[in-house]
Amino acid sequence: xxxxxxxxxxxxxxxxxxxWMKVSVTVVFRxxxxxxxxxxxxxxxxxxxxxxxxxxxxxxxxxxNAPGVAFLQKKGVEGTRGKEEKKGKLTLKKIADLxxxxxxxxxxxxxxxxxxxxxxxxxxxTKWEWKTRIGTGDAASTGLLVGLGWSLKYMIIGxxxxxxxxxxxxxxxxxxxxxxxxxxxxxxxMIQFRIGHAMVAGLRVVKHWRGRRLPKRNPLxxxxxxxxx
Length: 229
Prior knowledge:
By secondary structure, this protein is of the alpha+beta class. It has helices at 2-20, 92-108, 112-120, 139-163, 195-207, 219-227, and strands at residues 22-32, 35-44, 49-54, 57-61, 68-75, 83-91, 124-136, 165-166, 171-176, 181-194. The strands form two sheets. Strands 1, 2, 3, 7, 8, 9 and 10 form a seven-stranded mixed beta sheet that branches. It has a three-stranded antiparallel beta sheet with strand order 4-5-6. A hairpin with a 7-residue loop joins strand 5 (68-75) and strand 6. The longest helix is centred in the middle third of the chain and has 25 residues, at 139-163.
């Protein structure tokens, strides 16, 4: 009996320890001319565990037989341009199917928006850098793009700080290039949250998951409703 209690206490202690641990997620996006990079780095266990997800580049594939979105994976040494290799493709039919599945998921989870809002309150933004260089070669149009860029950045930062805890001062810059065409941006965002808060959000999603089977309707009531009674 004592051995069983010791095992249960150990399991509970481990669960509490895991729930208390923090997860750090770093999102990096870099676009310089034709060189693009996007990756997500997840760290936990005080930085001892690390997992990197490299997101393939996305480009439009204007194949007349099957237009869609192509995913390109860069091959070569990290930090260099490397060679792009096609890893997959989403046709218009697959994209429509994905949107239907997403819509079905949103309909089946009751109060999903409220669940995510409560989870976001426990997410802390510890680093935010977003630097951009943009230009068209024309001073007037470049100035217009710079103004739109500032508005977009402040709108996104405002939304992020509204739903999450912004514990850092965002480093934001837009450098206009009046004499040449330029499109460069570097974005880095680091967030932290405890595993326990993510577990609670996941359990709430499962709890609020609607059944796939719809409730049976009374045929007489349905007929009266259709006839306007």
